[in-house]
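Course assignment 3, question 2. Fill in each field.
Student: A.L.
Task: Predict the tertiary structure for the chain below.
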Amino acid sequence: MTVRLDGVLVHPVKSMRGRRVHAATVEPWGLRGDRRWMVVRPDGECLTAREDAGLLALTADTPDTDAGLDAALRLRADGHDDLHVEVPATAPEPVTVHGRPLTASAAGEEAHRWLRAALGRDDVRLVHVDEPRPLSPRHGRPGEATAFADGYPLTLATRASLRRLQDWVTATALESGAEPTALQMERFRPNLVLDGDLEPFEEDDWGHVTVGAVTLRVPKPVDRCVMTTIDPESRERGPEPIRTLARHRKWDGATWFAVQLVPESVGEVRVGDEVLPAPRAAGGGPAGDGA
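Answer field:
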């Protein structure tokens, strides 16, 4: 069986556009530069594209996604000048990711003003992670943490599973005479994308995966939310893929696509790296915790 790393995506600011890169460094919190920045509302809770799809129209880069960048972060939006932002030195403050607490430092007023103008709202600020959030004790181990990801440091998806899901979505559309929804992998915002000799959804049964020289644990599949129903290019909303996942991939009251990852070693991963999956130990079937 030959399986390769087919894609690497970094999301410098939570819920903004993902950035494809050829290589990335896996750190304990996830890919270096991934989801280290976040947009927050006045109460410190994250603002995501679930609530404001305009975030998907904004582009963020770091030196990890653009090697020529001489700032910690660059923000871009149509109709607005690019903004370069440095890691803030302000005092840490409490923030939350879907109610889960951690601390962050606020960027300067210039960054806040830029965001407010780009999004057309006056109630947001930009923050940078200060202390990471410990993982859920149900699937995490002491000392394991993540930055601003919803649940775990990385997410992995496979082309085989996306192809099968696309077939299901197309069949669902044909039943009702509707135009099938084309699913981009970006809807699921993975960090690592695999292709090769894989069966659809076999990743559900993996316990570990080694990418190049880096080993990662698979704690659980990913329970999907309404953000997957937003087309990342047009930002239009529709019923898919949640409608079809609910027919084929629903258990524990949730719908599932892709798997979470926790690094057990660190190092560089590159597109084309060989991938070696290992099955989960007997009795450790897939389960969810809503994280």
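Instructor remarks: Residues 3-9+150-279 form one domain. The first strand starts at residue 3 and ends at 10.
Grade: pending
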